[in-house]
Design brief:
The complex is a heterodimer of chains A (about 525) and B (about 325). Chain A is an alpha/beta fold. Chain A folds into three domains: about 5-90 and about 145-250, P-loop containing nucleotide triphosphate hydrolases (Rossmann fold); about 255-345 and about 430-513, P-loop containing nucleotide triphosphate hydrolases (Rossmann fold), CATH 3.40.50.300; about 360-430, no CATH class. Chain A is built from 18 helices and 22 strands. Chain A has helices at about 45-50, 75-80, 100-105, 105-110, 120-130, 145-165, 185-200, 215-220, 240-250, 310-315, 340-345, 355, 365-370, 385-395, 415-425, 445-460, 470-475, 500-510; strands at about 5-15, 20-30, 35, 60-65, 70, 85, 175-180, 205-210, 220-225, 230-235, 270-280, 285-290, 295-300, 320-325, 330, 345-350, 375-380, 380, 430-435, 465, 480-485, 490-495. The two termini of chain A are about 40 Å apart. Chain B is mainly α and about 325 residues long. Chain B has helices spanning about 10-35, 40-50, 55-65, 75-90, 95-120, 125-145, 155-165, 170-190, 190-200, 205-210, 215-240, 245-260, 270-290, 295-315; strands at about 150, 165, 170, 240. Chain B is globular and about 55 Å long. A two-stranded antiparallel ribbon of chain B has the order 1-4. Chain B has a two-stranded antiparallel sheet with strand order 2-3. Chain B is built from 14 helices and four strands. Helix content of chain B is about 75%, strand content about 0%. In chain B, helix 5 runs antiparallel to helix 6 and helix 8 (about 170-190) crosses helix 9 (about 190-200). Chain B has a single domain (about 10-315), classed as ABC transporter involved in vitamin B12 uptake, BtuC (Orthogonal Bundle), CATH 1.10.3470. Classes of the chains: A alpha/beta (about 525), B mainly alpha (about 325).
Chain lengths: ~525, ~325
């Protein structure tokens, strides 16, 4: 029993030229709850994806599970045989079907017999729920469970898979919990922790990925912090304090960068928009006054609800209440629609590029011009010559590669698709531009191009609200950054104070407050 | 405005766009060689052009909601509804044909509005709703007509549809051609047509680009039903009577033509001229086969197989990607 449950040595991973992980060592002891921390871009999710077989690591990595040396990536069957089980953030449950069917999905669908032995499946599910003291009716649909109950069911299901590998009386195995709890209330977290302790008592180990320092401090034995793809440190939880962890996540503060090209402040006195009493399902009363030409960042940890501000302003998701005062009048945000928002001079670039932002199956040309087609109507018909010319100029101006207007949006790289989708809005000169993770999954060169375009439109007077967990991006773009936690606005960081480290400190401080 | 990929050669793109036209010409050539005296006559084509005009109108009706991502299975029933309203009002109740035409078109608006209410407002899948309205309308039509054909429609009306001719082809054909031209213009040259395309490709994307998705979908469903009643009006004129049954027989070939049409002219999109050509391609095949005295059941096999073959061909041309038609 002295072999560690998980021993990773020299794990590296490059995407194109970028090192997502570099020489990462990670050891999870037997019956240990080990925390894994790190901010956006630290390599945390890449590490999980390598363990779960989604990515192959760069050559040279070593993996041992309970002393057995294994090759990465592992197939699902290998993982199951070695007692390695995952609960991802989306939990992997089908809401419409019952708890029983969800818990026994593998056994039910992979049974070798031509019929399903429902009584045996029910006994197994009930036994597993009872073992962990969960009073959940296996026949109710998952959709009727509370968020924490769903997480608990997913964890019990993962544990059952580990339990199936039990040889004799000894249980080996590693349960990886990848942020299953970002939205849970305090007493729900207690239930989750109770379950994790019982899993460990049975003999398995847990790798617990979370951004919540209080949770990490309370439940883990040790924790590892990743920063910029490397291990920033591993510590015994009992001998550590919050500030030391934040320091590890953020790195040492460096001198605040001096931006020569940001000349905001001088002309930025004229009020352009006022948000009053904005509230939604995951957002509590929020006020904000926006001045012409300023770029305001919104951030917070996962689940803090900051991106909801954009959704409610644009009417993508209805707000419960709140108003937006514009130059033209007052808009009731509980009745806002995207069509009305566009008419009022708002533009929204959603984070989900293919699903919400652009039509991947349609050509670049159509995607560039969709916000306002009426301006191309001449003598009752669309003037395709002018449209091609205009779209061609846009593509060149925003450096879309290749400049092929007939290419489907989906065949462009992420960065180029994003240039098309941002260019589409910049072209109609919105008064308020709402950006959600504008450079996620975008290469470095395209990122600079996108930032430059955003700075230019702000300099021309457009107000930009940028919701992002990419603190480097906020540092590069914003005049001020608002930090959110648990659906509330907590702190404002002014231009002079914005740095990645300061923002991180504020994010974690906001959660603790 | 052509295809999608710059990597494909212009020749391949041309072949894809006009393959259907080529196939049509091939069918005509084969039957003309085999049946020079009967198939390859202007008379035969003139009859086919006119008699298939209702089918063409229905197929054109269907591509309007299909472009927006909705199916209208009630189109066939709406064809018979319009024809039977003409028959009952004009023949049984001796009302003027002008009034009967307006009532028929009004019925189309009503069916379309019902479909739109359940599909767009209640948010039930269009397949389910229009399958239901198709059955409801069919039953209503049988009650209205007492399940029998009503002949003796207004002579002037019938003359206008079928007897009046240009180049020996009845006005019925030109009505269908005019609707095809209008839809082509709508899809290609109006902002509304572009919006419909976005709605059909992704409702969420369309919504977040400021398009009023619900309005567009509801409008398309109403337009579809109104065009289906127009098909029924032309159908009554072509027959000179109101037939309460065969409208349903139009539905499958109309869908076949819509999907077949989406493989050509503007491959990958429902388009008016592709659909129009596809209707006459299918009709040419069936006319030729029937001249050989091939039994009636072959028609069903031919239409059904043509639908599946058409969609299969377009899928292979696109490398069996997840279909974004419909």
């Amino acid at each position: 029993m002295t072999e560690p449950a998980l021993a990773l040595r020299g794990l590296g991973k490059s995407f194109g030229g970028a090192r997502a992980l570099d020489g990462v060592d990670l050891t999870v002891g037997p019956r240990e709850i080990h925390g894994l921390l790190g901010h956006n871009g630290s390599g945390k999710s890449t590490l999980v994806k390598i363990l779960s077989g989604y990515h192959a690591p760069d050559p040279g990595a070593e993996l041992r599970l309970h002393g057995e040396s294994l090759r990465l990536p592992m197939s699902l069957a290998e993982q199951r045989a070695r007692g390695l089980a995952f609960v991802h953030q989306n939990l992997g449950l089908v809401p419409q079907i019952s708890v029983l069917e969800n818990m026994r999905v593998v056994e039910i669908t992979a049974a070798r017999r031509p019929w399903v032995d429902w009584r045996a499946q029910r006994r197994a599910a009930e036994a597993a729920l009872r073992q962990f003291g969960l009073a959940i009716d296996p026949d109710q649909p998952v959709s009727s469970l509370s968020p924490v109950e769903r997480a608990l069911v997913a964890i019990v299901r993962a544990f059952t898979a580990i339990d199936a590998t039990r040889s004799g009386r000894e249980l080996h195995g590693l349960l990886v919990l990848d942020e299953p709890t970002p939205f849970l209330a305090r007493n729900d977290v207690e239930r989750l922790f109770g379950l994790m302790r019982r899993v460990v008592a049975e003999g398995a180990s847990v790798l617990f990925i979370s951004h919540d320092l209080d949770e990490i401090l309370e439940i883990t034995d040790r924790a590892t912090v990743l920063r910029d793809g490397r291990v920033a440190g591993t510590f015994e939880t009992r001998a550590t304090v919050r500030d030391a962890i934040v320091e590890l996540i953020a790195g040492h503060p460096r001198a605040a960068p001096v931006d020569a090209d940001v000349e905001a402040g001088a002309a930025a006195t004229e009020v352009a928009f006022e948000i009053r009493g904005l509230a939604g399902a995951q957002l509590q009363d929020f006020d904000l006054t926006l001045r012409r030409g300023e770029i305001v960042g919104l951030t917070g940890l996962l689940g803090s609800g900051y991106e909801r501000v954009l959704h409610h302003l644009f009417g993508a998701v209805p707000a419960l209440r709140g108003t937006l005062q514009t130059g033209g009048g007052r808009v009731d945000l509980s009745r806002q629609t995207p069509a009305a928002a566009v008419r009022a001079g708002l533009a929204f670039l959603p984070g989900d590029r293919q699903g919400a932002s652009g039509a991947g199956g349609l050509p670049v040309l159509d995607n560039l011009l969709i916000p306002d087609l009426a301006r191309f109507v001449r003598a009752g018909r669309l003037d395709w010559r002018r449209m091609r010319e205009h779209a061609g100029n846009l593509a060149i101006r925003y450096r879309v590669r290749p400049v092929d207007l007939d290419m489907k949006l989906a065949s462009l790289s992420g960065g180029n698709a994003q240039k098309v989708l941002l260019g589409k809005w910049l072209d109609i000169a919105p008064r308020l531009l709402l950006l959600e993770e504008p450079t996620q999954g975008v290469d470095v060169g395209a990122r600079e191009d996108l930032w430059q375009a955003i700075r230019e439109i702000a300099a021309a007077g457009t107000v930009v609200l940028c919701a992002s967990s990419d603190l480097e991006q906020l540092e590069a773009l914003c005049d001020r950054v608002l930090v959110f936690a648990r659906g509330r606005f907590r702190a404002e960081v002014g231009r002079a104070a914005i740095s990645k480290q300061e923002l991180l400190r504020q994010c974690y401080a906001a959660v603790a407050a | 405005m052509s295809g999608d990929s710059a990597a494909r050669s212009p020749v391949a793109a041309f072949v894809e766009r006009f393959a259907l036209v080529g196939a049509w010409l091939l069918v005509i050539a084969v039957f003309s060689l085999l049946l020079p005296g009967s198939f390859f006559t202007w008379q035969n084509f003139a009859v086919m052009f006119a008699s298939q005009a209702p089918a063409a109108l229905l197929a054109l009706a269907l591509i309007v909601p299909l472009t927006c991502g909705d199916y209208d299975l009630s189109g066939g029933a709406t064809v018979t509804l319009a024809a039977v309203i003409l028959g009952v009002m004009n023949v049984v109740h001796q009302q003027p044909i002008g009034l009967a035409l307006w009532v028929a078109l009004g019925a189309g608006v009503l069916v379309g509005a019902l479909n739109a209410f359940f599909i767009v407002y209640v948010r039930i899948p269009s397949l389910v709703v229009t399958l239901g309205t198709a059955s409801v309308v069919t039953g209503f039509v049988q009650w209205l007509s007492d399940s029998s054909t009503i002949s003796g429609l207004d002579g002037g009306f019938v003359d206008w549809i079928i007897t009046k001719q240009i180049f020996g082809v009845s006005y019925a054909f030109y009505v269908a051609a005019l609707v095809a031209a209008v839809l082509w213009y709508l899809f290609e040259y109006t902002p509304l047509g572009r919006r419909m395309l976005f709605v059909g490709k992704s409702r969420e994307v369309a919504r977040l680009n400021g398009i009023r998705v619900d309005h567009v979908r509801a409008g398309a469903l109403v337009a579809s039903s109104v065009l289906a009643t127009l098909a029924g009006i032309v159908y009554a004129g072509v027959l000179g009577s109101a037939d309460p049954f065969s409208g349903l027989n139009f539905l499958l070939p109309a869908f076949a033509a819509a999907f077949l049409g989406a493989t050509s002219i503007k491959p990958g999109r429902f388009n008016a001229w592709g659909t129009f050509i596809a209707v006459y391609f299918l009709a040419s095949g069936i006319t030729g086969l029937s001249m050989f005295g091939i039994p009636l059941w072959v028609t069903s096999v031919f239409n059904g197989a043509a639908l599946i073959v058409a969609v299969t061909l377009s899928q292979f041309a696109r490398g069996r990607a997840e279909s974004d038609l419909g």
